[in-house]
Automatic annotation (TrEMBL):
Name of the protein this chain belongs to: ABC transporter substrate-binding protein
Chain ranges of the ABC transporter domain: 8-239
The entry's keywords: ATP-binding, Cell inner membrane, Cell membrane, Ion transport, Membrane, Nucleotide-binding, Translocase, Transport
Statement: the UniProt record of this protein carries the keyword Transport: yes
Bilayer topology annotation: Peripheral membrane protein
Any Pfam family hit: NMT1_2
Family designation: Belongs to the ABC transporter superfamily. Nitrate/nitrite/cyanate uptake transporter (NitT) (TC 3.A.1.16) family.
Domain of life: Bacteria
A GO molecular function held by the record: ATP hydrolysis activity
Compartments (UniProt record): Cell inner membrane
Length: 668
């Protein structure tokens, strides 16, 4: 069904007296169907009314826009009527005259008698016949609000906007008006958007509840589908078996936001002006996609942004990277995408170490390689691999990945499970540092591995392996490497952190200009960086990619992706998918407070500020369902339902993770 209202990537920014600006709303993207009732819910200051004013045309967004039936909203109009909390009635006019004022203005083309009939009809609709000739001063608060609703509906708007319409009323009056609004909305198939603080009101009235996070940079944190059938009655809603579960989920979201607000106040006091630290030690693992770090150092981007001396520390493994950052030996590091989340949650039974990422450094770049022995046995695809496993039940087949929280591990497991191969029961998975993959495969200690380049190409060139699948077969554009720093480091050195992200953003842009790739490949081949043969590094990075399966090499323009198509955004929906996979395989619990965890780890505020200062776009991709190669849909509004739907998984632990007080773990 075509959307009736489209809120398209709306930002709202307000100037501050000190010359700076306040970003109230960030990347609000929402579609509303005709006849739908949507509530906007969140704490005070989250931008609910600001968004409603933009939809009404009372304010213009700083970016993005609103479409109503395909036409852009640029100013107020009678097709959108707003019901305010303060009634907005003219005190010297009667009920009838207040309603008639709107009808006569908007419907001048109708005969006078027809306009009078419309006024009387709406007086009866809100049950105010006996008060029709009274002025507002002689009406109760509930009656005034009914006049306001009647006036709005009398001009037959396409969209009814309600800004906390019942917030100032007593409980009894409020419930009566809510019931009346339900009846009117159902009878007239109204499309409504309502701002509210009241959880029960939202559940009673809404088809969907859109929950906004705290400002600044408020965004849609979660959308709740309300499953109660219409026509809707209050007691039927309250007695519905899902009512209290939904209510609990909404209250939980609001409590997360309350905690986040308290924490941000503490952090703001720590920040200081200027670059607090200019000499940095940054860790990396020798892989082709460490290119942004190498480029930032060699091309002077670090120095450009005030980081005078940056040492790149070549680490032997991702385990060493994690140790270096958590022990404070390293200021920052290139990390596999899931590592900041896993460390923050306390992977492997260790105490949580909050780690944040303000930029994705690369996407794609991995492949699943199998031994040439399996190729010689006829294995060409996943179905063949399953057959080979079934044909040798007494043999333990071993696959290697680079780290439990890496996309290599998570996607390899996903790929196997899609064919009903249990990666822990039907195979043996082990962790090996990337530079050791080829030697271990050559020794016959593993049957294959999932790793980044140049190690797959190295195995092919030595004629000991072939690529059965690569990232562009499995999940095009998945996050691969990120910048990771400890949260306390980011709080202590906020301007240094921002400068580091800016330098790496510019380096990423440089890496995705293919005219620069020959030069970058030669830099990567140096022994202090990747230290591999130049032809191995160029495969996929610059030259056509050879799978080692006898077919002609393919030109894969996005095999290594560093900047295009919002590569660098630490997308929270992708982070949420990673959290589900970490929980799926028992690597970490799934955090019941996932919105709070994602906000702390995947720092959209840092990324956005860095991007804006560089005049780069700072949009976050649409928060909408997506699927990998097998077509299984991941809905970011229902991660637990997604987890429960997966056939092969370990026992799922769902816990509230209090990373500020790690001894406190609350099972959900």
């Amino acid at each position: 069904m075509t959307a009736f209202v489209v809120i398209d990537h709306v930002d709202q920014v307000f100037p501050l007296p000190n010359g700076q600006s306040y970003i109230a709303l960030k990347n609000i993207n929402l579609e509303i169907r005709k006849g739908e009732f949507v509530s906007l819910l969140g704490h005070s200051g989250c931008g609910k009314s600001t968004l409603l004013n933009i939809i009404a045309g009372l304010a213009q967004p700083a970016a993005g826009g609103v479409l109503l039936e395909g036409r852009q909203v640029t100013k107020p109009g009678p097709d959108r009527m707003v019901v305010f909390q303060n009634y907005s009635l003219l005190p010297w006019l009667t009920v009838r005259q207040n309603i008639a004022l709107a009808v006569d203005e908007v419907m001048k083309h109708l005969p006078a008698q027809e306009r009078r009939d419309i006024v009387e009809q709406h007086i009866d609709m809100v049950k105010l016949r006996q008060a029709a000739d009274k002025t507002p001063g002689k009406l109760s608060g509930g009656m005034k609000q009914r006049v306001s609703i009647a006036r709005a509906l009398a001009i037959r708007p396409k969209l009814l906007l309600l800004d906390e319409p019942f917030g100032a009323l007593d409980a009894l009056t409020r419930s009566g008006l809510q019931d009346q609004l339900i009846q009117i909305a159902q009878e007239h198939h109204l499309t409504c958007i309502m701002v509210t603080h009241d959880v029960d009101e939202a559940l009673l009235l809404s088809d969907r509840i859109v929950m906004l996070t705290n400002g600044p940079e408020s965004y849609i944190g979660q959308i709740i589908d309300v499953p109660f059938e219409r026509p809707r009655e209050r007691m039927a809603v309250v007695n519905h078996p899902n009512y209290y579960a939904l209510r609990s989920e909404i209250v939980y979201f609001l409590n997360q936001q309350k905690r986040a607000k308290q924490r941000k106040v503490k952090q703001a006091a720590i920040a200081r002006n200027g670059l607090e630290k200019i000499n940095l030690e940054i860790g990396f693992v020798p892989l082709t996609d460490c290119a942004p770090l190498v480029v930032a150092r060699e091309m002077g981007f670090f120095q450009k942004h005030g980081l005078e001396e940056v040492t790149l520390s070549r680490e032997p493994s991702w385990k060493a990277i994690a140790e270096g950052v958590t022990s404070k030996r390293l200021d920052a590091a290139q990390m596999v995408a899931g590592m900041p989340l896993a460390l923050t949650l306390g992977m492997g039974g260790k105490a949580p170490t909050p780690v944040v990422t303000g930029v994705v450094l690369s996407r794609n770049g991995n492949a699943i390689s199998l031994s040439k022995r399996l190729y010689d046995e006829g294995v060409r695809n996943l179905a063949d691999l399953k057959g080979a496993l079934a044909a040798a039940p007494d043999r333990v087949h071993t696959m290697a990945t680079v780290h439990p929280a890496s996309m290599h591990n998570l996607i390899l497991r996903y790929w196997l499970a899609s064919a009903d191969i249990d990666p822990d029961h039907d195979m043996h998975l082990t962790v090996i540092p990337p530079p050791q993959m080829v030697a271990t495969l050559k020794a016959g200690n593993i049957d294959g591995f999932c790793a980044g380049e140049p190690w797959n190409t190295h195995a092919i060139k030595e004629n000991i392996g072939f690529v059965i699948a690569h990232d562009l077969d499995l999940w095009i554009g998945h996050p691969e490497k990120v910048l990771g720093v400890r949260e306390d480091w980011a709080n202590q050195y906020p301007q240094t952190h921002l400068a580091l992200v800016k330098a790496l953003l510019e380096a990423c842009e440089y890496c995705d200009d293919r005219r620069n790739r020959p030069q970058i490949a030669e830099l990567l081949a140096k022994p202090e960086y990747v230290g591999a043969e130049l032809e191995y590094i160029r495969a996929g990075f610059l030259d056509p990619y050879d799978r080692g399966d006898g077919k002609p090499p393919e030109q894969l323009l996005r095999f290594n992706q560093f900047h295009i198509d919002i590569t660098n955004c630490p997308n929270r929906a992708e982070g949420l998918w990673i959290l589900t996979q970490l929980a799926r395989w028992g690597i970490t619990p799934f955090p019941r407070n996932w919105i709070e965890i994602l906000d702390r780890v995947r720092r959209m505020d840092v990324y956005g500020e860095a991007a804006r200062q560089l005049d780069f776009p700072d949009l976050e991709p649409n928060r909408e369902p997506f699927a990998l190669f097998d077509g299984t849909v991941f809905d970011p509004d229902d991660p637990i339902g997604y987890l429960n739907s997966l056939r092969i998984k370990r026992e799922i632990r769902i816990e509230e993770i209090d990373i500020d007080h790690p001894a406190i773990v609350v099972a959900a």
